[in-house]
Specification:
Layout: H1 10-17, E1 28-29, E2 35-36, E3 47-48, E4 51-52
Antiparallel strand pairs: 1-2, 3-4
This protein binds zinc ion.
Keywords: Ribonucleoprotein, Ribosomal protein
Biased composition (Basic residues): 1-19
Family: Belongs to the bacterial ribosomal protein bL32 family.
Amino acid sequence: MAVPKKRTSRSRKGMRRSHDHVAVPNVVYCECGEPTLPHRACSVCGNYKGRQVVSGDNA
Ligand SMILES: [Zn+2]
């Protein structure tokens, strides 16, 4: 098994880990005012692109 010749410095480790984070989901607001994910039908009213695509139970 390959073994690293040199210990990774704190700086190098930090540079590598600068991308290690959970991406924050983007938020768009539906016509009904609820925050939803982009390119998804609204979970509250079932609307997508200005028309109903899922039957809204509580709309
Ligand atoms: Zn909605």
